[in-house]
Design brief:
Elements (H helix, E strand, L loop, with lengths): L11 H7 L16 H4 L5 E11 L4 E12 L6 H29 L4 H10 L11
Antiparallel strand pairs: 1-2
């Protein structure tokens, strides 16, 4: 699209041909403006999870998660929803994976793994996005 005439458009192939088939590069710089004085740039949230641990079988179940977020002005609902859901999945998955890694160290000792699982709480981090 032409800067001087936004109605003028060229197919990418035409632009590449005019450039002799060489790669097309664009360089730009951006500096902070007055936006930080006018708008908030941080979002906050809290996530609460009900977690059930079967210490004998080493099974962790998360039957319920409640999340509350303050994201300010939402620009794209679908993208924001996906990002918040991804944070919840990450919050459940990472501690569970770390717990599994702990058990891999004590692979042969079921009682040691059972004791470690019973003694260690699965903690979900409080969500905070920037």
């Amino acid at each position: 699209m032409s800067v001087s005439n936004p109605q003028k458009r060229d197919p990418a192939a035409a632009v590449i041909a005019r450039n002799g088939g060489r790669a097309i590069e664009a360089v730009a710089t951006a500096r902070p403006g007055d936006e930080k004085k006018e708008y908030a740039f941080h979002s906050f949230g809290a996530v609460f999870a009900e977690v059930h641990v079967d210490a004998d079988l080493g099974i962790i179940r998360v039957p319920r998660i409640v999340a509350v977020y303050d994201v300010g002005t939402l620009l794209n609902e679908k993208t924001a929803h996906s990002q918040l859901m991804g944070g919840i999945v990450w919050g459940v998955g990472i501690p569970a994976d770390r717990q599994a890694s702990l058990h891999a160290v004590c692979a042969g000792a079921r009682t040691a793994a059972r004791g470690a699982l019973a003694a260690r709480a699965l903690v979900l981090r409080s969500a905070s996005t920037s």
